[in-house]
Amino acid sequence: MTEDGELAFTMVWQSYDTPFKLWADEKRRKKYETFFGPGVGAEVVKIDAEQRLVGIRLTTGGPLKVEEAKEAVSA
User: What integer best gives the mean pLDDT of the chain?
Assistant: First the structure.
């Protein structure tokens, strides 16, 4: 559950070959929302840089605004 009461689910991958910047690209992030949607927001989360773990966090409540997505990536 998020602070806003939305459901959240994070899928985690070990990504040796694909850099985090590519995962977090805005066009790709929007594709994650439409692939798993409708009504789903997606943000890319760096889980562990050393182990090269990256996550896609899906949230109910609709697509994220660009500002929200950028805040999530920089956090």
Answer: 87
